[in-house]
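Morning - zinc ion inputs below, output right after.
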Amino acid sequence: MWQTVRERREGEPKDPIVSMIPVWSMVLAALFFIAAQYFFFRVLPPPRPGILPMRMLISYSWGTAFASYLLLIGYISRDVRRRGMSATMWMLLVLVMPGGIGAVVYFLMRQPLLQRCPSCSTEVEAHFHFCPQCQFQMAPVCGRCYRGTQITDVYCVNCGHDLAKDSTPERLRLYSD
Ligand SMILES: [Zn+2]
Ligand SMILES: [Zn+2]
């Protein structure tokens, strides 16, 4: 039965970072990159012979910097929602604070991912052991001290409780069906 749980877990689809970046920010990033090239090679006076490699390096790095920043903003705009945080406030902060400081603050302050209780669909924080609405067990815990355990542990590492004596939690019964 334990095996079944682990196999199902590995089979679950991963959340690739690319699916978190909206199309509008990809398009904007590409446009800004092209605009940077246009500025450095068409708007500025033509480079004197000898500084062309330097000009190419600068235009490329500026273009990449702008493009990455736009992709980052796109990522945050989606990430903020799946964490139940205020989208308007954070997008404003990230855009207003200069030089990407807003993004750094965001990654330091962001809330943990929300997940849904499989039993009652309440949004539950990732570190919760039990659903606050229906008592559904979200993570393996010791039946005596209720601290977290590994699914493969035989005894609780905190209180030494024999974990095999616990009744099978609802969560595992769901998987073993
Ligand atoms: Zn629930
Ligand atoms: Zn324990």
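Note: The chain has two domains: 13-99, 112-177.

O.
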